[in-house]
Amino acid sequence: MRTYSPLPVTFTHGSGCWLWDTKGNKYLDALCGIAVTGLGHAHPAISEAICGQAKRLLHTSNLFEIDLQKQLAEKLTALAGMDNVFFSNSGAEANEAAIKIARLHGHNKGIKQPAIIVTENSFHGRTLATLSATGNRKVQAGFEPLVTGFSRAPYNNVDALHTIASHDKNIVAVLVEPLQGESGINIPDETYLPAIREICNEYGWLMILDEIQTGMGRSGKWFAFQHYNFTPDIMTLAKALGNGVPIGACLAKGEAARTFQPGNHGTTFGGNPLACRTALAVIEAIEHNGLVERARLLGNRILTGLKQNLSSHPHVKDIRGKGLLIAVELDSPCKELAQRALDIGIVVNIANENRIRLLPPLILSDDEADMIVTKVSELVSGFNPK
Ligand SMILES: *Cc1c(COP(=O)(O)O)cnc(C)c1O
Question: Global pTM?
Answer without folding.
Answer: 0.98
